[in-house]
Amino acid sequence: MRSFTAKLNSAESKVNILMVDDRPENLIALEAILASPNYRLYSAHSGEEALRHVLTTDFAVILLDVQMPGMNGFETASLIKMRERSKHVPIIFITAISQAAEHVKHGYSVGAIDYIFKPFHAETLKMKIEAFVQLYQYQEHIKLQNELLKVIGETSNDTIVTVDEAGIMQTLNATAARMFGYSPDKLAGRSIDDIVPGLSSFLHAEMSQGARLIETTALRKEDIPFPVDVQIGRASIVGHQLYVCSIRDVTDRKMMEEERFRKIFDTTPCLIALRSLKDKRYINVNESLLQAMGYEGDEVFNQTADLLQYIVDSDDKGAERHNPWQPARNVRIRYMTKSGDLRHGLLSSEVMQVHGEDCLLSVVTDISERVFLEKEITRLDRLNITGEMAAGIVHEIRNPMTTVRGFLQLSKNNPSKEYTDIMIEELDRVHNIVTEFLAVGAQAPTSRKLKHINTVIETLFPLIQSKAMTGNHDIALDLGECPPIQLDEKEIRQLVLNLVLNGLDAMPSGGQMKIRTYADSKQVVMEVRDQGSGIKEEFLAKLGTPFFSTKSTGTGLGLSVCYGIAARHDAVIKVQTSEQGTTFFVHFNL
User: Fold this and answer.
1) Residues 570/589, Cβ–Cβ less than 8 Å
2) CB–CB of 277/354 below 8 Å?
3) Which segments in the chain show pLDDT lower than 50?
4) Among residues 68, 228, 353, 453, which one has the fewest Cβ atoms lying within 10 Å of its Cβ?
5) Phi and psi dihedrals of 449, rounded to 5?
6) How many helices (H) and strands (E) does the chain have?
7) Are 482 and 452 within 8 A, CB to CB?
8) Spatial contact of 546 and 557, defined as CB atoms under 8 Å apart
9) Coil, strand, or helix at residue 353?
C-alpha cells in the first residue's frame, strides 16, 4: 500500500484524463480543447489501448468514442466497469452517428454518465470536464481522510468510540479490545455507560459548556475500574448528532502522580492526614504527624474517631472549634497533641478523589516556634520601649529637680524671692511633663460629638497666628467643605496645636505654614504643612515614640499625644517629608 505522503502528492498533482477515439484528428481536437496545466491527457486509438491505460493509471474522467473498429465504445465501457479499481470512473460517450433513445439508453446501461453528440460545443465540454475533475478531487480527499482516520484508529493507544445522542456506541476501534477486554463488535449497540459509567449524561452538558476533557473512571470486563481521560468532540452527519469520544487509559500517569505524592507525603515536615469522607476513617498519615502528635501508626490508621482536634484562632469570635470536614486555606489554628500540649499551626485542606473514593486531605504547618519568637520579640520590644521611656522620664524630670535642689540649698543661707520663683517654674515644668505623659496613656476621649473640624481650626486660628507672628512666620488656611464628624473638641484642639507648634519650631524665620482640609466620600483629611528642613529618614519610624524628639529642648511627648488622640478617633496620621518641608496628614474616617 502506498504511503500517505505519496497519496497526498498524487492528489495535489495533475489530474489524469483518458481520451479514446480511433480517428487521430478527433484526439487532436480534444487535446486542443482540454489543454490545461492541471490536466495530464492520455490518448488511446482503440478500446484495447484504452483498457491497457486503465490497468496502470487512475483517471478522473474518460471520453470514449462509441463507434470504433474492433471493440466499440459500449464493449470497452463494460470491461472498464467490471474492474473494481475503475468501476466508479465517470465515462462520457462521444458519438456522431445516432441520437436515438435506444442507442443512448444502451450507453447509460453499460456505465455512461453523460452523452455528447458531435459536433459538440468546446466550452460546454470544458465545463463538464471541470465539474467531473472537481468531483474526483473531492472524492480523493475524502478517501485519504477516511484512510487516515482508519489508520489513526487502528494504531492509536486510545479507544475511539462514536456515540449517538442516546449514548449508544456506534463504532469502536481495535484498541477497545485491549483496553476493555471486549471485541469492538460486542460493544457496538450498547450504552457508553457500560464502559464509562455516567458518561452519557455528560455528553450534552459538557459540550454545551465547551468542555473537551473529562477525568473519570472506566470499567474493564468483569467491572474492574481504572482511571481514564475522555476527550469529546461533536459532529453532525445528515442531520444527526454524533459524539466522538477518545478514551485514554491514564493508569500509569496516575501511578506516577501517586508516587510523587507519596514521596512528598512521606518527606515533608508538614503534618498530613488523608481521611475518607464516606466513613471518616484515617486512610493515611505521614511520619511528621505521628511524631508531632505522639501517636503510633496503629493508633491512627483506619480509626474513625477525631484524634486530631483543631481549634481555629478567630480575631472576631475568639477561639472556636473548626469543622474538620470543610476545605480551608491557611487557617490559623491550635491543635492538641496526645500528651495534652497545645501547639500552633496553619491548616489547609482539600477534598479530592483517591482510587475513586472521596477523601479530605489536611495539611498542617506547625508554627509553634514562630509564635513563640513573635511573643518574645513583642516582649523584648515592650521592655525596650519601657526602658527608653524610663530613661526619658528620668532625664526630663531630673533636670528641673536638680535646679530646685540647688536653689533650695542657696535659700538656706540666703533666702530670695527670685530663687523661689525659679523653683516654682521648674516644678511647673515637672508638672507639665507628667501631664503630657499621662495624656499619652489616656484610653478614651471624654466627650465625642458631631462637629465640623473647620470650626475647631478657625477657633484656634487667632492663637496660632499670634504664635506664628512672634517667630516672624506666616500661616495660611485653606479649609475645604467637610461634613461633620465625631470629635472630642478639646483633644482635637490639642492635636492641631501640637502639630502646628512643631511645624513652627521646625521653620526658619520668614517661613510659611499652611493648614488645609478637604473631604471625599470616605474620609475627612487635615494637612499641616511647614517649610522646615524636613525629618531625616532614620527618624521617621520613631515618630510618636514617647520622649523621642529631634529638638534639643523637646520632651518628645507632643507627637505621642497626637498619635494617641488620632487612634482614639479611629484616625490615621501619615507623614511626607523632604528638604523643602514636612506635611502631616490626619485622615478621619466617615
Assistant:
1) yes
2) no
3) 1-6, 8, 10-11, 100, 315-320, 445
4) 353
5) -130, 165
6) 17, 24
7) yes
8) yes
9) strand
Nearest to 554 by CA among 491, 497, 506: 506
Q: Is 303 left (phi over 0), alpha (psi -120 to 50) or beta?
A: beta
pLDDT at 318: 42
CA distance 193 to 218: 9
What interhelical angle do 417-440 and 368-413 show, nearest 10? Answer: 170
HSE value, Cβ hemisphere, 13 Å, CA-based, for 260:
5
Omega cis (within 30) before 119: yes
**From CA 478, how far away is CA 542, in angstroms rounded?**
29
Burial class of 569 by CB neighbour count within 10 A (0 to 12, 13 to 18, 19+)? buried
Count Cβ atoms within 10 A of the Cβ of residue 209 and give its class: 0-12 exposed, 13-18 middle, 19 or more buried: exposed
Instruction: Give the Cα separation of 65 and 46 in Å (integer).
Output: 9
* CA gap 35, 144 in Å, rounded: 28
**pLDDT attached to residue 484:** 92
* Phi, psi for residue 325 in degrees, rounded to 5: -100, 5
pLDDT in tens, 312-336: 876 444 444 556 677 888 888 888 8
Give residue 8's identity as a one-letter amino acid code. Answer: L
Cβ neighbours of residue 357 closer than 8 Å, sequence gap 6 or more: 276, 277, 278
Quick check: helix, strand or coil at residue 545?
coil
Are the C-beta atoms of 228 and 196 separated by less than 8 Å?
Answer: yes
Which residues, at least 6 apart from 384, have a Cβ–Cβ distance to it below 8 Å?
Answer: none
pLDDT score, position 52: 92
164, three cell numbers: 449517538
User: Distances from the Cα of 13 to the Cαs of 6, 7, 57, 131, in angstroms?
Assistant: 11, 10, 14, 17
Q: Measure the CA–CA gap between 247 and 184, rounded to whole angstroms.
A: 14
Across 252-266, b (16+ Cβ under 10 Å) vs e yields: eebeeeeeeeeeebe
Scored b (16 or more CB within 10 A) or e, 437-471 reads: bebbeeeebeebeeebbbebbeebbeebeeebeee
The confidence score (pLDDT) of residue 206 equals 54
The full DSSP string for 508-527 is PTT-EEEEEEEE-SSEEEEE
User: Position of cell 490626619?
Assistant: 586
**Phi and psi torsions of 389, nearest 5°:** -65, -40
What residues contact residue 140 under an 8 Å CB cut-off, 6+ apart?
11
Which element (helix H / strand E) includes 105? helix 101-109
Query: What's the rounded Cα separation, in Å, for the pair 249 and 252?
Result: 8
Residue by residue, DSSP assigns 362-382 as EEEEE-HHHHHHHHHHHHHHH
- Residue 359: phi, psi to the nearest 5? -135, 160
Residue 345 · residue 333 · CB < 8 Å: yes
